[in-house]
Design a protein that fits this description.
Elements: H1 2-20, H2 28-38, E1 45-48, E2 54-57, E3 71-75, E4 84-90, E5 96-102, E6 108-114, E7 123-129, E8 136-143, H3 152-157, E9 162-166, E10 170-172, H4 173-179
Antiparallel strand pairs: 1-2, 1-10, 3-4, 4-5, 5-9, 6-7, 7-8, 8-9
Length: 188
């Protein structure tokens, strides 16, 4: 009876850990496949704040200036000691978004791209969401003279494409790790 209760408590603890940090549990080959798929980036990951999905490396941040930004500032929001440029934009509905631009990120792009109301003149945009939890993370931008719908590979391989991701929907990996607590029963 006591042993069954202890096993049930351990199972609950592991379930809680897996719920709050889904990247901890990756059986053997899945771990290697995820690293190969992501490439050879360096630095800490930028995560989806809603679910913890690994979106990009900090080194994937690339500043793309826009004359349509309401304001811009340098900050250390996502890059630790490295300063990144944060731009403030307003959409036609009056909603404002602070964004950081990335060269690439693991997001789902929802084509067709729209050329109207672009914050980056000469570029068409499409929504970008988290592939795991479907949270709206920002927008993907491609040259305006491209077709409205393109392949994921063409987007990723081009030097002309970029993403503008909303700062408060992102989280640094090292900050997320600092929020995790080890249950007392696991401490020695």
């Amino acid at each position: 009876m006591r042993r069954a209760l202890l096993l049930k408590q351990l199972e609950t603890c592991f379930s809680v850990i897996l719920l709050f940090y889904p990247t901890v549990y990756r059986p053997g080959e899945a771990c290697g496949a995820a690293e190969e798929e992501r490439g050879t980036g360096t630095g800490s990951f930028v995560l989806c704040r809603a679910c913890g999905h690994e979106l990009a490396y900090e080194t994937d941040i690339r500043f793309v200036p826009s004359r349509l930004a309401l304001s811009g500032r340098n900050d250390t929001l996502l890059a630790g000691d490295r300063r990144v440029h944060v731009q403030l934009f307003e959409n036609p509905h009056g909603l404002q978004f602070e964004v950081i631009t990335f060269r690439k990120a693991d997001v789902t792009k929802h084509w067709p791209a729209d050329k109207r109301f672009s914050w980056f003149p000469g570029f068409a945009w499409t929504m970008a969401t988290c592939p795991q939890c479907k949270t709206h993370l920002g927008w993907a931008f491609q040259p305006g003279d491209w077709p409205d719908t393109i392949t994921h590979t063409k987007f990723e391989e081009s030097d002309q494409t970029f993403l503008a991701l909303i700062t408060h929907r992102l989280l640094r990996e090292d900050f997320a790790s600092s929020l995790l607590m080890t249950p007392k029963s696991f401490m020695s």
